[in-house]
Each structure stands twice: as structure tokens, then as C-alpha cells.
Amino acid sequence: MDGAITAAVFYGFGALGAAASAVKLKSRFDLLRAKHPSLGGHARLARHVARLLPFYQYDDSEIFQVDGAPARSPSIR
Fold first, then answer.
1. CB–CB of 46/40 below 8 Å?
2. How far apart are CA 64 and CA 36, in angstroms?
3. Which residue would you say has higher pLDDT here, 24 or 1?
4. Which of 16, 33, 46, 50 is the most buried (most CB within 10 A)?
5. Cβ-contact 15, 22 below 8 angstroms
6. Measuring CA to CA, which residue among 54, 55, 34, 35 is closest to residue 44?
């Protein structure tokens, strides 16, 4: 009979733990749904996507000559 009482107590603690976990899980889910749906709302997802994209770096001389403009434009007077 003593084993049945011990088992019932452990089942009770297990039920309390499951209920507490469910409450915490629901609050985390509510927080997830409250965030903005863009990548800015999910920092981990944004970092993951950023790792997938290639890194580009341009020199200043390349940026201003993309359309074939001369290196120095004549000044307008």
C-alpha cells in the first residue's frame, strides 16, 4: 500500500510539472505570435538567413562608377 501512495504522489508532482510547462509554453507561444512577422522580429532567423547570403563589399570608386560615369564630372557654373 505504501508504494501506491508514493506512486500517487509522484504522479501528482508530474501533473503539476506538466501543467506548469503548459502554461510556460503557452506564454512563449503568445510572445512568438506578438512579434512582428518580418525577419527583424526574429533575430535568430535573421542571423540564419544572413549567413546564407553572400557578403559583398565595394570600394568607393566602384560604387560611383557603376553607370559608366566619368571619374570626375565637370562642375556646373
1. yes
2. 35
3. 24
4. 46
5. no
6. 35
